[in-house]
Specification:
Elements lengths: L1 E6 L6 E11 L4 E12 L6 E3 L22 E4 L1 H13 L1 H8 L4 H13 L8 H7 L10 H9 L3 H14 L5 E11 L20 E9 L5 E8 L8 H10 L6 E4 L6 H9 L3 E6 L4 H10 L9 E2 L4 E16 L4 E15 L1 H24 L7 H7 E6 L3 E6 L1 H8 L4 E6 L5 H9 L2 H13 L4 E2 L4 H27 L8 H9 L2 E4 L6 E2 L4 H9 L9
Parallel strand pairs: 6-9, 6-17, 9-10
Antiparallel strand pairs: 1-2, 2-3, 3-4, 5-18, 6-7, 7-8, 10-16, 11-12, 12-13, 13-16, 14-15, 18-19
Helix pairs in contact: 1-16, 2-3, 2-6, 3-15, 5-15
């Protein structure tokens, strides 16, 4: 028997079924039958049984002391911290609702990935023997593969829904994509694409949402490796609607900018801050209009070390309506925030000059690069040939037009009128880049080593759970200025050496702790007990 959650797309209700596989002798194949048990309460996530249905939910152990059955000496400081973070963030409660019989295994594997970075999962039994953790038992390498495959998409989406509701409605959500390289030839979505790690390997892409204030990720989606960033926004909007997130505010970089995406955001009534490309006609016109005066001292912001200006413009909204066979048109007010950075101007000009020198040398030597052909034509007039000699003449007017916009960048928003606030919100997007770094480095997921789609989906979900914990720890360390004295590894090691003693009939007894360790628990809002 298995419990399956299915969401009705028409009314948005999630129904719970009891599913059983059986062998059909007539058709000589395995089939499944389902029995509807009831529906999930959208507010609490609890199961509301249908009439005439008698069903005993799996017994779930309540939080609190676990009976001690053997004498044991274990390390418990770091896992005790993670237990408390799980309760503070709602991770444990949401996992308990979505995975009532297996949430402890999920947590234990996530703890292992956090505390034993760079160690493969087959080392879990050794770690389990020396640490107190939620599951309290070994999970062998073979069992872990089977366990990964048991984590269903419906249960994952339910978890995303619960976590998303914990993010504040007035919070901006940072959206971005990273690439994960793979050696596997068995994964369907592995493709060659624009690899952000510059690996010459096939990859999948991973899209993720982070809360701007909380600093916590709460949603991800796996994508084929050859899908460009700009093409993903349409499905993101569909996912947001499907998961019933309600009011949403998105912040995205310029890789997601397109007229279609902006129109889609307007159509869904979502607030946004999006970086734009400076070569767009309306952006170039705006930059040209402010270029003579933006360098005035009155436009300088000392905190940002930038020259800043802003203007309100009208967006030409258009949306195809297939049902009516026409196009909806209109005007939408947006704010175009323009920023000028003198240091950036110098760096961009220097980089551009070096690029032109390299292109010119390629032409003069006859060693042309196919990918550079459009740039040859754009920036140079080429006379003669390799026999009579090549003369390369720069198109100075074109070069001047490019250099004219060096040092400028722009943000577009339909919500934030203040250009400094818009910039601060946009820069909060850096936390998602750091999150991707933690996923690849601290959680050792830079290159995937799984052999099936189901194993990948399950392992990726647990890596994601571990990432939520790491993101919370990093946020506290930044807010409390703990990075001045600790790396994240060093901080976790400081907790991890705290041990405990377990004896049947007695409370857990902690080993010796230092004042520094107890103070660190307080920084995380955790009351360190003398007994449990």
């Amino acid at each position: 028997m298995a419990i399956v959650h299915l969401k009705n797309k028409q009314n948005g209700t999630t129904y719970v079924y009891e599913s059983e596989n059986y062998w059909d002798k007539n058709k000589k194949q395995s089939r499944s039958r389902r029995k509807c048990l009831g529906k999930l309460d959208p507010a609490t996530g609890e199961l509301i049984l249908s009439k005439n249905i008698q069903y005993q939910l799996p017994v779930i152990s309540k939080p609190g002391p676990v009976p001690i059955t053997e004498i044991k000496h274990s390390f418990y400081g770091a896992t005790f911290l993670l237990d408390n973070i799980g309760e503070l963030t709602g991770i444990t409660a949401d996992l308990r609702k979505c995975f009532p019989t297996t949430y402890k295994q999920i947590l234990s594997i996530a703890y292992f990935l956090i505390l034993e970075d760079y160690n493969p999962l087959y080392r879990f039994p050794k770690w389990s023997a020396t640490h107190r953790h939620p599951y309290g038992k070994d999970i062998t390498s073979l069992r872990s593969s089977e366990f990964f495959m048991s984590i269903t998409e419906a249960d994952r989406e339910r978890f995303f829904q619960l976590q998303g509701r914990r993010r504040l409605e007035n919070e901006y959500w940072a959206y971005d994509i990273t690439s994960l390289s793979s050696y596997s030839e068995c994964l369907k979505q592995v493709r060659y694409g624009k690899n952000k790690e510059h690996d010459h390997l096939e990859q999948i892409n991973l899209a993720m949402l982070f809360g701007e204030k909380s600093g916590l990720p709460f949603y991800y989606r796996k994508l084929p490796g050859n899908i460009p960033d700009v093409k993903t926004v349409k499905n993101l909007l569909s996912d947001i609607d499907f998961l019933d997130y309600g009011k949403v505010k998105l912040v995205m970089d310029r890789g997601f900018y397109s007229e279609e995406n902006i129109n889609g955001l307007f159509h869904e009534h979502l607030k946004f801050i999006v970086a734009t490309k400076t070569n767009l006609r309306y952006v170039k016109d705006a930059i040209d209009s402010v270029k003579p005066t933006i360098g005035n001292w009155s436009n300088y912001d000392p905190d940002q070390n930038l020259y800043i200006t802003s203007q309100s413009i009208w967006w030409d909204y258009r949306k195809e309506r297939p049902n009516k066979g026409d196009i909806e048109r209109g005007k939408r007010r947006v704010y175009l925030h323009i920023y000028f950075d003198k240091e950036r101007e110098s760096n961009e000009s220097q980089k551009f000059s070096k690029q032109l020198v390299s292109l010119k040398r390629e032409l003069e030597s006859g060693k042309r690069v196919v990918e550079h052909e459009p740039q040859y034509v754009k920036y140079f007039l080429i006379e003669g040939n390799t026999n009579s000699g090549i003369k390369v003449i720069p198109r100075q007017e074109v070069i001047d037009l490019v250099q004219k916009h060096h040092g400028f960048f722009a943000l577009l928003s339909n919500d934030v009128k203040d250009p400094i606030l818009a910039l601060q919100l946009y820069r909060s997007k850096d936390l998602i880049e750091k999150g991707f770094g933690d996923l690849k480095d601290h959680l050792s997921f830079r290159r995937m080593e799984v052999s099936s789609e189901l194993s990948l989906d399950g392992k990726l979900f647990i890596e994601f759970i571990a990432l939520i914990f790491l993101s919370y720890i990093k946020k506290i360390m930044q807010d409390k200025h703990l990075f001045q004295n600790y790396t994240m590894h060093g901080l976790l090691d400081e907790f991890d050496i705290i041990d405990c003693y377990e004896q049947p009939g007695h409370d857990i007894r902690w080993g010796e702790t230092t004042k520094k360790q107890r103070d660190l628990f307080k920084e995380f809002g955790v009351q360190f007990p003398t007994t449990l």
